[in-house]
Amino acid sequence: MKSKNQQASLSKAQRIEILHLDNHTIVINKRSSDIVQGDKTGDEPLVDKVKTFLKEEFNKPGNVFCGVVHRLDRPTSGAIVFARTSKALSRLNEQFREKTTKKIYWAVVESKPPQKQGRLVHFLKKNEKQNKSYASEKETPGSKKAILSYQLIASSDKYHLLEIELETGRHHQIRCQLGTIGCIIKGDVKYGARRSNKDASIHLHARKLSFIHPTTKEEVKVTAPVPGEPLWVFFDGV
Fold first, then answer.
1. What DSSP character marks residue 46?
2. Residue 13: which residues within 8 A CB-CB, separation 6 or more?
3. Which has the closest alpha carbon to 104: 211, 217, 7?
4. CB 92 within 8 A of CB 211
5. pTM (predicted TM-score)
6. Tell me: the pLDDT tens digits for 118-128?
7. CA–CA dist 50, 4 (Å, integer)
8. Tens of pLDDT along 176-195?
């Protein structure tokens, strides 16, 4: 199985960072400016950038298959996997549905959590008009159970780095649950941050991703380097 760890050129203006590449899967280190699939903004989605790369890299005629397996919010960066074949898409979809994949996130928050480590359980309900989720401690009509575990791994004078493992995958789950306990993610104005980041990002990064390869059945593990922004670089070196 061929794997590449490289930065691949799509054009003079566009670049994607590849964390893993083989005949059935490709894992990208998503930038916070990228949107996974097209939306009303009309901006070129990451899936199309990946298709362009695959077409050019492997000199493929006609349309190139690239299946979206899961998503990251636009202002979030980090590891995201795409399927290069329909077989891989079906099998990876099943893994994400059955929650057999493992996703570890890093979040830089404005306030220290009440404990160095903990497990949060809430019921989240999405407001479609606001594109925002709201958390409650008790189940309400239309709400979905959300569970994550966090650990405080470093602090600076003003900010704190949390490592988070998701047990469920809900809309804006990490952003909403951390905000509910007062640990608002830096730059995440939607969930209460003091101010936005200049580049419209939030300090939430999909740090690690592991899944079972759809054909070889071997475990694939990737770690996504953090963005080059100074605060991320500081925490990465702690």
1. H
2. none
3. 211
4. yes
5. 0.91
6. 999 999 999 99
7. 14
8. 999 999 999 999 999 999 99
